[in-house]
Amino acid sequence: EFLHDVVKPTSLKSKFPHIVSVHNSCHGVRELGLSSPSERNEPQFNKIVDLLRLVDGITICQPERKDECCGFGGMFSVEEPDVSTRMGEDKIARHMATGAEYVTGPDSSCLMHMQGIAKREKKPIKFIHVVQILAAGL
Fold first, then answer.
1. Tens place of pLDDT per residue across the chain (138 aa)
2. Exposed (0-12), middle (13-18) or buried (19+): which is 34, by Cβ within 10 Å?
3. What interhelical angle do 81-97 and 108-120 show, nearest 10?
4. For residue 126, what are the domain limits?
5. Long-range contacts formed by 38-47: CB under 8 A, 24+ apart
6. Assuming Cys at both sites, which of 30, 48, 62, 124 could form a disulfide with 66, CB separation 3.0 to 4.6 Å?
7. How many other C-beta atoms lie within 10 A of the C-beta of residue 103?
8. CATH code, domain with 41
9. What is the pTM of this model?
10. Are 133 and 48 in contact (CB under 8 A)?
11. What Cα–Cα distance (Å) separates residue 30 from each residue in 4, 12, 14, 20, 65?
């Protein structure tokens, strides 16, 4: 949010020649306003995608049901581990269906949750925080 709304870069020296699927976390969308929620009839925006468009060589994708929960939800994943895991598996499958090599987003807990599931199930997809991409090649 700070980069997008305050710094407002028009270019970056970053390079990331990969296909990346953007994960929009629940609280990032509905609490922090990083993107517009799909359930509302309003103009669509995504601050993370706007910043990623400044990175040289990147191909940006978004999964079907782009702002659906990955299943982490803090204590939810502890109290409902089976449901949490299934939600994560479904979300990973949607990210993989985009053809992405990487899943990125601003929420480390979502990325950690999905990465753990993907690693355990030997899924061929990687996870990287959006700031690592924005700084890539600097």
1. 999 999 999 999 999 999 999 999 998 998 899 999 988 899 999 999 999 999 999 999 999 999 999 999 888 899 999 999 999 999 999 999 999 999 999 999 999 999 999 999 999 999 999 999 999 977
2. buried
3. 90
4. 2-134
5. 38/65, 38/66, 38/67, 46/22, 47/1, 47/4, 47/5
6. 62
7. 27
8. 3.40.50
9. 0.93
10. no
11. 17, 27, 28, 22, 15
Q: Which helix (H) or strand (E) holds 93?
A: helix 81-97
What's the full length of the chain, in residues?
138
- Work out how many domains the chain is built from and give that number: 1
Instruction: Report which residue type is found at 76.
Output: F
Q: In what order do the strands lie in the sheet with 126-129?
A: 59-61, 19-22, 102-105, 126-129
Tokens 């449901």, residue?
83
